[in-house]
Amino acid sequence: MSTELDDGRRRVARVVSAAGVVAGLLLLTHPDGVAAAVAPEFPRERLWIARVLGARLVAQHALVLAAPTAAAVRLSAAVDGLHAASMLPVLALPRYRRAALLTGGPAAASALAGRSAAASLPR
């Protein structure tokens, strides 16, 4: 049986995931504009990386939008945690540092928040 509190938590998960889908679509369809706005030093010949990240964000957050369950949120948090960890060595590369901070930082926060949120969602 779904309670009002459960519905509210699912609604929050969906709102956060909708923002993730939007961000992913922007990276997927306009990586040059996003890179120019937030990380102008990012090499243009590497914009394919932004597209891959965008596709991953769309898929990841679409899953949570479709099924905001504890398992989906936990899986999303794990993916974000892996992304954040993968950005740590990239911080040493000056051309990629800002992009690593701007994607890895929110991914780390999302991983921690998602793990906590998953514990309060119904299975």
Characterise the protein shown here.
This protein is mainly α and 123 residues long. It has one domain. The chain is built from five helices and no strands. The radius of gyration is 15 Å and the shape is elongated. The model has no long low-confidence stretch (mean pLDDT 91).
Task: Provide a count of the helices.
Answer: 5
Give the count of structural domains: 1
Summing up helix and strand content along with how strands pair, one would put the structural category as mainly alpha
Q: What characteristic shape results from the CA principal axes?
A: elongated
- N- to C-terminal separation? 11 Å
Major sheet: size, sense and barrel closure? none
Q: Could you name the ranges where pLDDT drops below 50 across 5 or more consecutive residues?
A: none
Quaternary state of this entry equals: single chain
Q: How many strands appear in the DSSP assignment?
A: 0
Helix content: over 70%
Average residue pLDDT: 91
Proportion of strand residues: under 5%
**Radius of gyration over alpha carbons?**
15 Å
User: SSE string, helix = H, strand = E?
Assistant: HHHHH
List its traits.
123 residues, mainly alpha, elongated
